[in-house]
Design goal:
Helix content is 39%, strand content 16%. The protein is of the alpha/beta class and 324 residues long. It is globular.
Length: 324
C-alpha cells in the first residue's frame, strides 16, 4: 500500500521554500497615499496606525521611498480645502489631486506606476461618489459625465493608471471613450469592479475627512452577492478595463478567486483600511504577530488569484519580503 505522508515536504525551511506555491513580490504591491491641501506637515491618521495625511510638497519624497522599496505603484487620494455638491475640485487642473499626480509622475518617471483615485467622494460636500438628482439619489449618467472630465484632467496631469472606484454603471466605457477621443490611448484603467458596501471602510473615512451622509448601498455591491461581483467584473472588462479590482479583500477571497479564474486581465485586491487596522490594533495589544499577520494576509490574497495588492502595509511588506 502506498504511504501518503504529506509532511515529507514540510520537514525543513529549505524544503518548504522549495515547494512553496505562492511567492509574493514587492513589485505586486501598491501603496495608498493621502495628500491634504491644507497641511504644511504630515498628520497621522488615528485609526490607521503608521499612515498619515501628507502635504503636497511631500509627494516627491514619497515616490522616492516607494521606488527604493521596490513596490509597484502608488494610489493617490486627495483631500481638498473646499468641497461642493458637484465635486468641482476633481476636474480642476489646479485641484489638489491633479497637482499631486503631476508631482508624482514627474518624480517617478518610468520607475513606478502612478495611479489616481477617480471618484467624487473626496470632493463632494455630501460625500457620495457621484452628483445627486432632485430626489437626493446618485445620478449615474450625470456622474459619468463628470468622471470623463476627471479622467482627462488626471491623464493630462500624468497619471499612468486611473482607478475608477465610483461603481457607476458604464463608467469604464464612458471614461475609455473620453480618453480615446483626446488621444490618451496609453492611459490604463483599473476598474473597481466588485466594490462592496462594506463595514471595513471606517478608517478610510477618517483618512479622507469624509462628508458622507447616508450610505452607498444603491451603487456598491451587497456583501451577500458573489455572482454579482463576477458579473460586474466581466462587464468592466468588456467595456475596456485593463485591470479589475475586488474590494475589500479578505472577506471576499471567494470573489477574488472566481474573478481571477474568469478574467483575461490582471486582478487587484484592496486590503482596505479596516482590514489593515484590525491587524495593527491586535498587534499593538500583543494579540498578533504584526509581521507574520500582514505577510499571511498578503499571501492569502495572492493565493486566491490577485496579481496586484493595494495595501497600507506595502512598504513594510516589501522590506519583509526582501529579508525573507
Amino acid at each position: 500500500m502506498t504511504s501518503y505522508r504529506p509532511r515529507r515536504v514540510r520537514t525543513t525551511p529549505a524544503m518548504r521554500r522549495l515547494v512553496r506555491e505562492v511567492r509574493p513580490h514587492p513589485a505586486e504591491l501598491v501603496l495608498p497615499v493621502f495628500v491634504h491641501e491644507d497641511l504644511a506637515e504630515e498628520r497621522p491618521i488615528t485609526s490607521l496606525p503608521g499612515v498619515s495625511q501628507h502635504p503636497l510638497d511631500a509627494v516627491p519624497g514619497l515616490v522616492q521611498d516607494a521606488v527604493a522599496a521596490g513596490i509597484g505603484g502608488l494610489m493617490l487620494f486627495a483631500i481638498p480645502s473646499v468641497r461642493d455638491a458637484q465635486g468641482s475640485g476633481a476636474v480642476d487642473p489646479e485641484g489638489i489631486l491633479n497637482r499631486a499626480i503631476g508631482l508624482a509622475a514627474e518624480a517617478a518617471g518610468d520607475r513606478l506606476v502612478i495611479m489616481a483615485d477617480l471618484c467624487l467622494d473626496e470632493f463632494t460636500d455630501h460625500g457620495h461618489c457621484g452628483v445627486l438628482d432632485a430626489g437626493g439619489r446618485v445620478d449615474n449618467d450625470a456622474t459619468n459625465e463628470i468622471y470623463a472630465a476627471m479622467a482627462l484632467a488626471q491623464a493630462r496631469a500624468g497619471a499612468h493608471v486611473l482607478g475608477l472606484s465610483g461603481m457607476m454603471d458604464h463608467q469604464v466605457a464612458v471614461v475609455r471613450e473620453a480618453l480615446e477621443a483626446e488621444g490618451f490611448t496609453d492611459t490604463a484603467l483599473l476598474a473597481y469592479a466588485a466594490k462592496y458596501a462594506s463595514a471595513f471602510y471606517g478608517p478610510f473615512r477618517e483618512a479622507v475627512d469624509s462628508q458622507l451622509q447616508g450610505d452607498r448601498r444603491t451603487y456598491q455591491l451587497d456583501p451577500a452577492n458573489g455572482r454579482e461581483g463576477l458579473h460586474e467584473a466581466e462587464l468592466d472588462e468588456l467595456e475596456g478595463a485593463d485591470m479589475v479590482m475586488v474590494k475589500p479583500a479578505l472577506p471576499y477571497l471567494d470573489v477574488v478567486a472566481e474573478v481571477a479564474a474568469q478574467s483575461r486581465v490582471p486582478v487587484a485586491a484592496y486590503h482596505v483600511s479596516g482590514e489593515y487596522a484590525q491587524i495593527e490594533a491586535a498587534a499593538a495589544h500583543g494579540w498578533l504577530d504584526r509581521r507574520a499577520s500582514h505577510l499571511e494576509a498578503l499571501t492569502s490574497m495572492r493565493r486566491a488569484g490577485a496579481d496586484i495588492v493595494v495595501t497600507y502595509a506595502a512598504l513594510d511588506l516589501a522590506a519583509w519580503l526582501k529579508e525573507n
